[in-house]
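so i finally got all the pieces together for this one. its two components total, 215 residues if u count the protein bits. some of the lines might not be protein, just check the labels. i wanna see the whole assembly predicted at once instead of chain by chain like last time, that was a mess tbh
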Amino acid sequence: MKRVTEAKLDPAALRNAIRVPHDSGGLVVFEGHVRETPELFLDHYPGMTEKFIENLLREATERFELTLAEAVHRVGSLKTGDLIVWVACASPHRQAAFDGALYLMDHLKSSVPLWKREHEAWLEPSEEDLYKKEQWHEQ
Amino acid sequence: MPKVRLKFFGQYREWVEAETAELEANTPAEALASLGLLERFADSTGMLAVNQEVAGLDTPLNDNDEIGLLPPMTGG
């Protein structure tokens, strides 16, 4: 699965592209959409961004014993309502699938080479995003 | 001295006119200093990579190495 793309993301096509292993009791799919904005641009580091996402998927799979972990991030110019990130996690029991998806999202926010520019200004990671990520490493 | 390439991302793109710079340097610190950006980078909370692996200001460089300058990340 392509991890980073400038192309519009189709959630139905992404869902159809995954095969959930038979020992999975739960599948959690998360869609992140662009909130109301006149213009959003996502910069990335080709090659390194994909590598960071792959590492993150491996970490989540090991930590939560997932049977499936996938993530795709959109880059380039986006508009209000566009799907910006898609995450799917499966596990034998539902809690791990929910935790895995949350872990992936909390790390995609501030630990993967992606940079948002909105209203002509580059964004800084929010205190809330940094706190949520740190919480996973204090447990 | 090794010939290397610097690549700037996100808000760091605005530090320079072009998104890449080619120069000679033994370390990322030397490369940034030659562009007058060492202090600015050290004062920021970003990170750097050499050939797409996380590295430090004093990481030894080789010919054709690529130094990526990565501001605080804001994906998701």
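The interface with chain B takes residues 32, 42-45, 47-48, 51, 73, 84-85, 105, 108-117, 122-125, 129 of chain A (CB under 8 Å).
Residues 40 and 121 of chain A are 10 Å apart (CA to CA).
anyway lmk what u think
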